[in-house]
Amino acid sequence: MPGFFTQDFFADYARLLNADPQMREVTKGISTTILLRCEDRGVGFRVTVDESVIGAEAAGEGSTAEFSFSAPYDEWVRIARGEAKFQGEVVSGRMKFGGSMPKMLLYLGKILRLERKMLATMQGMDLDF
């Protein structure tokens, strides 16, 4: 059972997402990078989506990505457990967003499908919070 928001978690997560045939359809036409940071633990991971292939790697202090999301560990846990919505956390300011809002809005339909699929996969994992 991987610890949540660790290298092992993101490796298992990417493996599960890549093995899901529905994920290929959801990510078709999307090539982007997303930086996910856990503010209070000082860790981050860079997720790549490249035409149906998901990758994840540890992100150092100077890492960049097309989009970034940063929140305290407890907020990430609430999202992973389905207790909070990703968009709601951004809108409320509990999660910080970085990147091009126009580009995010351009791909909103695909991004929402991607978010739902990713969260469903995460919620199906046996995680140690």
What is the averaged pLDDT score?
92
CATH homologous superfamily? Answer: SCP2 sterol-binding domain
Order of adjacent strands in the largest pleated sheet: 3-2-1-4-5
Number of domains: 1
- The CA-CA distance between the termini, in Å, is 10 Å
The value of Rg in angstroms is 14 Å
How many β-strand stretches? 5
Which parts are unreliable, with pLDDT below 50 for 5 consecutive residues or more? Answer: none
- SSE order, one letter for each helix or strand: HHEEEEHHEHH
Helix content: 40-55%
Shape by Cα distribution? globular
List the helices and strands and how they pair.
Blueprint: H1 7-19, H2 21-27, E1 31-38, E2 43-50, E3 53-58, E4 67-71, H3 73-80, H4 86-92, E5 96-99, H5 101-106, H6 108-123
Parallel strand pairs: 1-4
Antiparallel strand pairs: 1-2, 2-3, 4-5
Helix pairs in contact: 2-6
Describe the fold and architecture.
By secondary structure, this protein is an alpha+beta fold. It has a single domain, classed as Nonspecific Lipid-transfer Protein, Chain A, CATH 3.30.1050.10. The protein is 44% helix and 24% strand. It has helices spanning 7-19, 21-27, 73-80, 86-92, 101-106, 108-123; strands at residues 31-38, 43-50, 53-58, 67-71, 96-99. It has a five-stranded mixed β-sheet. Helix 2 (21-27) runs antiparallel to helix 6. The longest helix has 16 residues, at 108-123. The chain is globular and about 35 Å long. 22% of the residues are buried. The model has no long low-confidence stretch (mean pLDDT 92).
